[in-house]
Amino acid sequence: MTSSPEIPDTMRAVVLTGHGGLDKLQFHNDWPTPVPGPGEVLIRVHACGLNNTDINTRTAWYSKGVSDETTGGAFDTADDGDATWGGASISFPRIQGADVAGTVVGVGQEADAGLVGKLVLIDTWLRDWSDPLNLNKCSYFGSEHDGGYADYTKVDRRNVHPVDCDLSDAELSTFATSYITAENMLRRADVGAGDVVLVPGASGGVGSALIQLANRRGARTVAMASDAKHDQVKSIGPEAVLQRAPEDLKAALRDAIDDTVVDVVADVVGGPYWPQLIDVLARGGRYTCAGAIAGPMVDMDLRTFYLRDLTFTGATVVPPDLFKDLVGYIERREIRPILAAAYPLEELRAAQTAFISKQHIGNIVVTMDAAS
User: Fold this and answer.
1) Exposure check for the chain: N or C terminus, fewer CB within 10 A?
2) Pair 355, 228: CB distance under 8 Å
3) Domains of the chain
């Protein structure tokens, strides 16, 4: 292995020991430092952003036995066998954390030694590189593979993207999951110039990313958020901001943008309000979804779906080219990070508690600043 000097044999890490509550996250000072394989790189983690996948995997919310909203607590009805995003069990212990900003400090014999010393982001989707478009062969960094809630992590060389910008490590670690999810949603819904895009949950990581990325495409964005967050959400750049769940959504749209319909609903919320979101889609409109934090079970009138010629798309696994595009947006300052708070690694439980409370705007991260 080609590496920087003084890589320790052990490191700090927060380890998930099983499905359950916050007590399943255990901090260690002496966890073995990973050793990269021939085609892998070793990364010194500087910061790692939180995301809903961490919470949903820990609590087993992905299990078909769960029909409740995301709460951050364990679910008695969950089945460990289908309790991850891919519908299969994962092994424990597991280091979670997908949104890594760090520096390459070592490479395996088949990786480019020129990467050592580079500041990088990690493409969170792990692929069979002999068949990279096969969705069934994809897995997720920090889920099926150890991630970034540690001083060091390793990953396939093809998942590493050097980035050249003046953002802080904490700011850089806000991008990967939220923005790549949002860009995939917008691509799947074929969002273009002039489209009116409605964004429920606009204050969260994906929601705030959707506003920026849809604006970048020339769309008109309408955000939905709680009243207390309106001023901060407005600063992200939507054309209008509505209440989180207006009693009469069509009337609220009419007052805000002089129209009662939208072209695209980009949703990570779901829950009981969902039918009203579908009712405001224009004929030929598109609904794209990458989450259901308010609950996965919704009431659907199929007549609305087929009589109005609507298109529904799910958005989970991201095409291989998309992360490179995201890095370009960052380097050209076409998007900006929205950093809500940074916690030291040792306080990951507190960071998750803040994340689950949904009182923040943007993204929460943990940093490794105290590492030796």
Assistant:
1) C
2) no
3) 2-175+337-367 (3.90.180.10), 178-314 (3.40.50.720)
